[in-house]
User: Fold this.
Amino acid sequence: MTQYQLPFDNPALWDGFGSTQPPRTNPHRGLDFPQAGGTPIPSIADGTISYKGSSSVLGQVTVVEHPDGMFSGYSHSWNASPLNVGDPVARGQIVNYVGTSGSASTGNHLHLTLSVERLGVYSGQVQDPYPYIMDRLEPDPPPEPVASDLWTTDGALRPSTTITSASGLIRITVSAYGAGALVTYSIAGVRDRGEAIANWAAKTAELLLTDVSEASTSRTWIQFIPQNVAATVRVECYGLRPGAFVASPLIVVEAVA
Ligand SMILES: [Zn+2]
Assistant:
């Protein structure tokens, strides 16, 4: 599916598709994005410049044909597009600059149209670009994997969590996704009258991440510690093979009443 984007980062919209707000005498055929004069206008999807020209009403107009058969039109631009008919454009590539040319414009803005017709920007069938774009945005990238050198040598992934429990019970929940990796925990480092008591429960439980999957795997362990004494819980990851990784780790350590 052809991926689209909104033309600008700021969400400002003057007037929507189909608007009959005065002084309009016909329903609005596009979307109006107010922007400072000279703001670059990106193509909302990959395509080819299929038309550049001007009219008394829409001013300087650029049209891009997209692989899915749609034509996006960019009107009221500052000047003629610096690109030529037949030039390929990538999504986000600048096709022109915001202006206020044409009698239908009352200030610097982009009038964006979407049509199945090459010159639908002027007349003929148009549709609301907004839902069309929003249904075709680039999917969110998968979570960033933890760099392997952060955890393959000494296993450190997160600072320790310190906890006390009146009942002596704590619950440790770890979820993550990854491949070829092992998540373990240890409980240690209680300072009682200046003494450190280490490794009560070192690496007693493990969460094995085997297959590459974007779905998190989760495990919960219940562990005893001395009542009302601060314990530190440290969760660690180990790579089991080259290319192993762990991502989106979520670690919850809580006292159980
Ligand atoms: Zn408009």
About this structure: Residues 129-134 form the longest helix (6 residues).
